[in-house]
Structure formats: structure tokens, C-alpha cells
Amino acid sequence: MNCTIIGLGEAGAIYASALLRAGHRVTGYDPVVTTAPAGVELAPSAAAACADADAVLVLTGAGAARPVAAECLPAMRKGACYADLTSSSPGTMEELGRTAGGVLFADVAILGPVISQREETPLMASGPGAEAFAALVSGIGAPVEVVPGLPGAAMAHKLLRSVFMKGLASVVVEAVTAGRAAGLEDFVRTQIAAMLAGDGEAVIDRFLNGTQKHAARRSFEMRSTSGYLAELGVPSEMTDASAGAMERMAATETVAS
């Protein structure tokens, strides 16, 4: 197939190389990056890169999703696949899907770090082009889950996942940093590891059932924790946010009762 990669940063270069190894012809375009993996033909513009493409993979920053689509989609033939792998909002993906005309638009969510997992990074796709995209990248070893719905459905899944994944990462960093400052890093690590190794569903239910019920008491504890982190010289954004959330829950519980 004739494949095009828009955005030749680290992720774009990884997918370009994988498609080349699978026997596809790969054309690339990036307004900033002037080099590409050996075998990738560089085009003078995004539109030129897409003119003969069977599939276009967009791996730019989310802020470029609209202008890239505006340039590429009119240049593509009907029935070709346009896969947007940017971390744009579900609303943006749905909007871009409506402008695709006869091009098969796919909203693709990347569910892991491409730099470490490379082309084997799990993906999720939705929209009219999802099946075509999945068929293409399954040939390079990429696991793709196709979810029903319009473009934006895959990104909705990713962003909801990010509430937990990115929030958890930030909490762990804050907790371990505080533990290190207090000389208790091993203790904090052990506590975190034990929680992550437990029964996940049971932990979720315990959090859902217990957090609001005990929000008032726990909010005071978190304000005390924030003060302690200040004494240690450790930033406490996640602790402060937790205290604020519990104060809100406690107020809601009071009004409801």
C-alpha cells in the first residue's frame, strides 16, 4: 500500500519504519523535521504527501490536527483511510470526521508509550476508517481494538483512562518524592506496591463507597498532609487537589442529608 506519515517525530518515525519493513511504500511530511528513516520519501507538502495515499497516519501534536486535516483531506482520493493519532478532544475528532467527505476517517487513541513499546503499542480506533486502519497496522504487530461509534469514541475512552492513569502517575511521583524527603521512601513504595497488587475491583468499590462517606474527616487529614509536605519542601499539587475534592464531597453529603 501507499502509506503517508504526517509528523516525523519519534512516534512518526517508528511507525514509518515499521510500515517499510512490512513492505509498504511510505511517504512522509513534517514542516520541521527534515530527515526521515531510510526508505521514506519526503514530500514537499502535506497535500502532496497524501495525493496518492491509500492510508494517511497523522502523528502531529493535537494543536495541528485541524490545519493538517484541512490540507490533507481535500487532496485524498475517496475510499482512502485517514487516521488521526493526535491526542485531540473527542469533539475535535467528531468535527474532523464530518469534514472527511468520501475519505474514511479514523479516530485513533494511543494507549501506551510509543517510545518504549514502539509499533506494538496498544491502539483503539473508531469511525468509518477504523477497520481499514486496524487491518493495515495489524500487519506491523500493532494491537488495535475497534470500538463502535463516530470519530471521537476512541479518544473519549483514552481521555477517561487518562483521568486515572495520569492522575495515578502524578500521585505516585508526589508520594515517593515526599517519602524520599522524609527518609521513608521504602515504606511509601511498599504501601503503593501493595495497593496496586491487590484486587482491583475490590479497591475501586472501596474507594467509591468509602471516599464520600468519610470525606469530611479525610479532607482534614489531607490538609495536614499538605502542611507536612510543605515542611519537607515537596510540591503538593495532588494532595491539595485531593483535599479540595473531599471538601466538595463532604459539602455535597451535608446538603443531601
Automatic annotation (TrEMBL):
Domain Phosphogluconate dehydrogenase NAD-binding putative C-terminal positions: 181-248
Cited SUPFAM superfamilies: 6-phosphogluconate dehydrogenase C-terminal domain-like (SSF48179), NAD(P)-binding Rossmann-fold domains (SSF51735)
Domain 6-phosphogluconate dehydrogenase NADP-binding per the UniProt entry, residue ranges: 4-130
Any Pfam family: DUF1932
Name of the protein described by the UniProt record: NAD(P)-dependent oxidoreductase
